[in-house]
Amino acid sequence: MKRETQNILLILLGGALVKIAVNGDYLRYVKPAQQPWIVAGGAVMVVLGAVAIVRDLLAARRSVSHDHDGHAHSARPAWLLLVPVLAVFLVAPPALGADSVIRTEARAPASAAAADAAAFPPLPAGNVVPLPVNEFVSRAGWDAAGTLNGRTVSLTGFVVHTGGRTLLARLVISCCAADAFPVTVHLRGGEADHLASDAWIQVTGQVVPGTATKATSYTPDFTPASVTTVPTPEDPYEY
Fold first, then answer.
1. How much is the pTM?
2. Structural domains for the chain
3. 20, 41, 135, 153: which has the fewest C-beta neighbours closer than 10 Å?
């Protein structure tokens, strides 16, 4: 690969990293805490590429020899490397969704499993308590005090149809999308059965006590009082 092509690719790749960090697309790959590192890495790549190009241009001006051997075609395969870089600029891939949930068995969050029936703090007062799906599944499977029992909560996630059941799901990541694992809730009643997979919904209702067990892959049953479609959140993952 020619130096000119290397340097241009370096600038474009660095610019792509800065772009996804600024417009929020990076949240489809990593957790929010990684944003400063993506910006810094992209900026360094842009600066290095620009410095190298300027250096090569100055060196070319000082050179008294010119290469007319007709080897320009050798750079063509290298320019094909621009395709994935331009794809980052022009097309934002979707976040992981229902297909990932179906391929990966749901499990209890690691922190909850380690606690083994730990005492969870009481839920805050209110007729409807918003909860992350991650916390809801943790409490349903591991809270010996049953703090969810009889309480109406609100959950937001995407629809998954599998095995004749309709689930509400979220993907939990520790660092990046590569380590994502699903947490799921079985929606009873059929109110969400007509919705397409990956549709984002907000549900209110109550847990069915005792349904989040190892036999059910820690997927509690949930009796919805309401099901509402909502826009896809800017950050689709939980942590």
1. 0.74
2. 3-90 (no CATH), 98-238 (2.40.50.140)
3. 41
